[in-house]
Amino acid sequence: MLRLSSTLLLAAACLLVSTGAQRVITCGNHVHRLSCETGVIRVQESMYGRRDRDTCSGEKAEEVAINTACSLEGAEDTIRTSCDGKKVCEVTPAIFARDPCNDTFKYIQTTYTCIPAIHLITCEQSMVELQCDQGHVIHVYHADFGRRDPHICSFRREASHMENIKCSNPTSKVAERCNGKRTCSMRASSGMLGDTCPRMYKYLELTYNCLKSVGA
Fold it and tell me: pLDDT tens digits, residue range 89-125?
């Protein structure tokens, strides 16, 4: 069984090298997947709809690709909210509130980069500590208090407390508490971060960076 300390600092506790922009296009209802081998996702641009007749046309009838002015307002914000700060992100069109053009075959198109980040995992009820060097302050990219893996934070835990691996609870509490500070600590608890999966043993997974403070 995999053992983890209460706070796991991934990627050798270092800032990771950012990479150039990548573009992903996903047709129809297939899974739109963004990923970073190093660093975390930062969405630059994203759209859901259709901008030209050629992309994702294939053997589709011409009439379902003729509308090239189809674009869902707010789609970019939705993808940013879902993916920014994660190492891997998978979404489908079901994430969007509505269909911008019913009779058009659509696609999701996202341009993103992988930016430097520190990745932390902290088991429920343990303390998480974020730290930056002098002259730098914390900037949290993403935080989620739930369970998406059966092995993380599983040592000596009952299987029934880890069976729900679709327990996701993105939270802004860490950013609200820690952004702009040089050091910050808090407990990974349901009382502090909320609980969308009662009876499940959860963990806090977050990514952050140390940015140069104003005037430093």
Answer: 999 999 998 999 998 999 999 999 999 899 899 999 9
DSSP codes of every residue in the chain: -----SEEE-GGGSPPPPEEEEEEEEETTS-EEEE-SSSEEEEEEEEEEES-SSTT-TT--GGGS----EE-TTHHHHHHHHHTT-SEEEE-GGGSSS-S-TTS--EEEEEEEEE--EEEEEETTSEEEEE--TTEEEEEEEEEEEBS-SSTT-TT--GGGS----B--B-SHHHHHHTT-SEEEEE--HHHH--SSTT---EEEEEEEEEEPTT-
pLDDT in tens, 37-76: 988 999 999 999 999 999 998 767 677 888 999 999 999 9
- φ, ψ (nearest 5 deg) of residue 94: -65, -15
Determine how many CB atoms are found less than 10 A away from the CB of residue 82.
19
What is the rounded CA–CA span in Å between residue 66 and residue 53?
Answer: 6
Angle at CA of residue 134, ends 128 and 138, nearest 5°: 40
Q: Hey, what domains does the chain have and what are their CATH numbers? A: 22-115 (2.60.120.740), 118-212 (2.60.120.740)
